[in-house]
User: What shape does this take?
Amino acid sequence: MTQKPLRLLIWAAVCLLVLLIVYVFIKLEMLWAPFCLVVKSILIPLIIAIFISYLLLPIIEWLHRSGLPRTLSLLIIYLLFFGGIGYGLYKGVPVLIEQLTDLSESIPGIAETYDGLLLKLHDHTDEWPDGIHSRMDRFIQRTEEFVAKTIEGTIRSIRFVFDYILIAATIPFLVFYMVKDIDLMKKTVWYLTPKSWRKRGSAFLRDVDDSLGDYIRGQLLVCFLIGLGAGVSFWFFDLPYPLILGLIIGLTNVIPYFGPVIGAVPALLIAMAVSAKAVITVVITILILQFLEGNILSPLIVGRSLKMHPVVIMLALLAGGELAGIIGMIVAVPAAAVLKVMMIHFLRMRTEH
Assistant: This one.
């Protein structure tokens, strides 16, 4: 047997073996599923705690350098952060569930309003081809179904979080000890890392932190302020569901360029079902908030900490949206920044050798 057919035969055998292992693994789900559940229960709070510690650590270090004892700095920021979150959840979650339930029950009425608007639109567009009308009807129907499923899923998710409240309660304790013993943790990671990786690993993490740290913290603060401003404005002008719409606008604002447009769509759809005055209110509110963000909040809080060209950011957003929708767009920019740092370090290693 020649070399080439033998190599193909070996590759085919390896592929069959891998497929067999995967098949057996899937069939033995009842054995490994409980283990995965335990790992997930440990990993999710740990990852959240690491992320929160990463956000709070620079503020605690700044207070410590200003003269406050480290433990006191930690307690002040810790109580402010988790106290604020706890109070917000205590006051906001019941209102959020109430508004979500009300919105879910109001969808048929909103749908009737849009049906009336569609009939008027049909009357004014009789000369248009019939195919356009049917596509518009299908689009509205799919939008209604999507909104209904999203609301029901959100309510289920909130109740699901409460089912795991004991696991979530460990996060503040994890954060406290992570920040308190950060120097010990750094030393432990340093000694566990192979000697040949230490210098490069430290430089890589430092560059990732320089590229991402200020951006993430600043962007989260800007999103919170924009969401708060939108929610308060909608509440002041008596628009329905101000808390839901403020949350949507705040969360989607984390997506550069496309976020404000995505966040404005639900607010405009609900406003259109209320009145023309409500639509004008929403448009003016969003324009004012975007002006404040673009000219005051982002330059002052975020700055140019990301150090990436807008074209690269937009391409990353398009790729993230194609791969994982809204979640992909949220993760796309930080992932692109990390990939950029990885490429720089890889090229530097190539030139060194």
